[in-house]
Amino acid sequence: MYTTSEKEIDYKQLQKEPEKNPIFKFITIIFLVAILILGIATVVVSAFVYTTQPETPVVSSRYWPKHKYATSFPPPETFQENRGTCWVHGLVGPLEQSYRRNGILKGFLKEDQYVPFSIQAFGISIVKACQDPKNYAVCKELQAGPEMNTTAGGEPAWLYYLPELYDKLFPESLCPYLPEDEDEWKCDDLDKAIKSKKNPIKFNIVDMKTVYDIDDAKELMREKDMALAFSTDVWTNVYYIPCYKDDQKAGGDYSPLCGVWKDRVKCPAFVTKHAEDDLCLRTEQPGYNMDGEWYLNTHFVAEGGHAMQMVGYNDEWITLHGEKGGFAIKNSWHDQLYPWDPASHLTRGGRGSHSLGYWLGEISTWDERYICPNPGNPENWMSCTDLQAGPTQMKNMGRAEKKMANEMRERFVKEKREAMKQNGNSTSNSASNEEKSVEMCLKKEYADELLRVLRQPFEFECHNASRYKCDTTKYRYFLDSFTHDTNSLVTAKFVTIQKSDGKTAGTFTLREVPPSMVADAFQPLKSQLDFLANDKDNCGYYWMPYDVMGTVTRYGETWNANYFDIEWADSSYASMSYKYSGKDYSYLKKSVLSQKKHTFDGPLPLAKRTGKYM
């Protein structure tokens, strides 16, 4: 710091300098005017609590052709567990995506960052708001949650009619979601956080638009680049498993369930391969398959309602059941097997899902096995006998996968023959002997490599032995074949290996059952299930075909999709905490997370380009 004694200031000289240098005077004036304008602009911007989205939003981070589309920056899925809170997940999901999109576009978040909101806390706040007498007309629904003092049961659209909730959205770290109904009201710090009025997260819903038509939903999603809160009726599919009036007539050629489950009905006319007086087992299975595709059987039964999120569409996707075109739906269910109860028509069954990129045709099937391999789905299981027979027999594989599997097989056969030659045995193995062998899957070196590279389970264990007449205590089970029969049923055949001596014991066949029943009877070894677990950051997407939506509507089922026009206060982001000293950012800062991203160079998930030609 200078003083006048250390450095004298010549004021007369300062007054003369501008006259000698007019350019300096002009630059100084311009500089002062710029500072004044910048200061005024800062004050004006800071005076606003809310900042609006651009009138013409940035539609996507990439160009989408007309026949398909996906909303930008979807955060990971959330799980409703054993509670009936799908509607809270269905409305918080669009809030999370809107918050993330707004934050990324404005530079408040990095592209891989997202903030999960507390569904536990928000569900409680919604129900309490609904129980306020002034909101009774808003939330009055037949057996809806608020009327029964529970968070189980509600509608995503309630959010639009309850603006008192727009400052009661908190980060997940305030109250983590609890899986059981008995804990639905547990959120110890919620009341304190509300009363403090220091919650930095604030939003406003300017408008809501509801659509009931497929083309309207597609147009709305593309125009707004926003996830839609999707509510739909759901159903179970009825299956008829053929038995016989005389079980011995088929020489034992019938489902093992026929021998243990005696509740039979007369087979409908459309069930083939039966005599006029034959009987069938009637069972209800979920309205979706284990790949997450919703579908309709010849007979289906209304089950209730479910809320999800509509996040994309693809007019060209064809499902396993042959329906072309549909919506990618973000669900709130775990990918796992739930035991089947023959005495109940309400069944969750086996559940699986995919990544959004898979439904949009953005990656190969082999790539998808490194994200969402769905190991519990029998359609995705590997047949060891197919591997042994060579690539032309292999199921569930593309050409590149077959090529790699065949190279492994050839290496295995070569090593086996060299070993036999050294031991003085014949090397002339016939193809028929190798065809039904599972030796390749029995050798740990090759089994581990198959699992790592092809990402498919190959060894299975029996569940519920009394029902399906299988026995994991005595045998190891390897899939031989999985075939689709008539009546939407499948037959799964397994090669059995004795645990006592490692010798082939024969085969076990689960005949003419719904696909999810194969998963109820057999599941991959736990070590393989764990290794092939779906990625929770990127899986969780189901598929709703256009044809299915149209058919259920004609039968009196309903669906609708809601778009929320949401504005976010800049204070809602942790990166803006320096401007809002009166707010409590402790929970928000702990809830800023990063989402895992998968990238592939092409259809070969393990292949990486390592150099350049020029």
Structure description:
The chain is an alpha+beta fold and 614 residues long. Among the domains are: 15-46; 78-211 and 564-594. It has 21 helices and 17 strands. The protein is globular. The chain starts with 10 loop residues before the first helix and ends in a 20-residue tail after the last strand.
Task: Briefly summarize what is shown.
With 614 residues, the chain is α+β, with helices and mostly antiparallel strands. The chain has helices at residues 11-20, 22-46, 86-105, 119-130, 136-139, 158-161, 190-196, 214-224, 257-260, 356-359, 365-368, 384-389, 399-422, 431-435, 439-442, 444-454, 465-468, 515-521, 526-531, 546-554, 586-590; strands at 50-51, 68-70, 113-114, 203-211, 228-242, 264-266, 279-286, 299-318, 324-330, 459-462, 475-484, 490-498, 504-513, 522-524, 541-545, 559-569, 593-594.
Index terms:
614 residues, alpha+beta, ten-stranded antiparallel beta sheet, five-stranded antiparallel beta sheet, 21 helices, 17 strands
Roughly how many Å apart are the termini? 59 Å
How much is the radius of gyration in Å?
Answer: 31 Å
What shape does the CA trace take? globular
Task: Report the average pLDDT across residues.
Answer: 83
- Uncertain parts: 1-20, 42-59, 389-394, 426-435
Helix content: 25-40%
The description of the largest β-sheet is:
10 strands, antiparallel
Q: What is the number of beta strands?
A: 17
* Total count of helical runs of at least 4 residues: 21
Strand content: 15-25%
> What structural category do the secondary elements indicate?
alpha+beta
